[in-house]
Design a protein that fits this description.
Layout lengths: L8 H10 L3 H12 L5 H14 L8 E6 L2 E6 L1 H10 L3 E11 L2 E11 L6 E6 H4 L4 H5 L1 H18 L7 H7 L8 H10 L10 H13 L7 H7 L7 H4 L1
Antiparallel strand pairs: 1-2, 3-4, 4-5
Helix pairs in contact: 1-2, 1-3, 4-7
Length: 237
């Protein structure tokens, strides 16, 4: 019996995709591609790599941290690889849609062999643009990439993977206070963050409070409270 007979098929396929032995591919995955991933996340990741023939060493697919988990994210090179390797693939075209010279949308067309009509996808700038540096600097390139990915996804029924922009949108962004909240903080003062204690940390604090003697007002305190409150601002001061 060969040593390879004891290696799961999913790891053998992953080694083939990476162009190396399964043992070496596993080592590289654990040390560089997914050093913080769990065994279940690594297994799911290599299954996706094998299913679509994507090589993480060529940056066709990579592990993206999202909400405490690791999800497989495919870059544009990986999506193009999926399309060009498909036996029915013929070509991909893109068309910019502009109004008064300004970019409005990008339409992508995926042509399949023997098909009289292409599979299309149109992405609109108003729906996709985000306040990030890539979108500010290269809006046309970013929109073209999204349109191509959506067209490939529709044409070849690709599921179980996402592109980077989609993964980033899933990650909660920090809240940004609006002008009204900022003005309120200026007027009332920004509240200090509340420290939440664990039950173990709170126990000695509660014991110390319980151990303190109950407050008893003095004669002076009672006499002071009994005084009428003046409405004269100067007296009140």
């Amino acid at each position: 019996m060969n040593e390879s007979d004891n290696i799961p098929a999913v790891w053998q396929r992953f080694g083939e995709v990476c162009g190396t032995s399964p043992h070496e591919a596993r080592r590289v995955l654990a040390e560089s591609v997914m050093p913080k991933g769990t065994d279940a996340e690594r297994l799911a990741f290599i299954a996706v790599c094998g299913q679509y023939g994507l090589n993480p060493l060529r940056k066709e697919i990579y592990a993206f941290p999202s909400q405490g988990k690791v999800v497989p994210v495919v870059g544009i090179d990986g999506w193009l690889a999926i399309a060009t390797r498909h036996p029915e693939h013929d070509a991909i075209e893109t068309e910019e849609i502009r109004e008064d010279g300004k970019l409005v949308a990008v339409k992508a067309l995926v042509w399949k062999k023997g098909s009289s009509r292409p599979t299309t996808a149109t992405e609109y700038l108003s729906e996709c643009q985000r306040p990030t540096q890539p979108w500010k600097q290269w809006p046309c390139r970013m929109l073209t990439t999204k349109a191509m990915i959506q067209a490939i996804r529709r044409a070849y029924a690709v599921s179980g993977i996402m592109e980077q922009d989609e993964a980033e949108r899933m990650t909660p962004e920090p809240r940004v206070a609006d002008a009204r909240a900022t003005n309120r903080e200026v007027l009332l003062g920004k509240p200090e963050p509340v420290e939440v204690l664990t039950p173990e940390e709170a126990a000695p604090v509660l014991d110390a409070i319980d151990a303190e003697p109950e407050y008893q007002p003095s004669v002076e305190d009672v006499a002071d409270w009994a005084k009428p409150v003046s409405r004269d601002p100067e007296v009140a001061q």
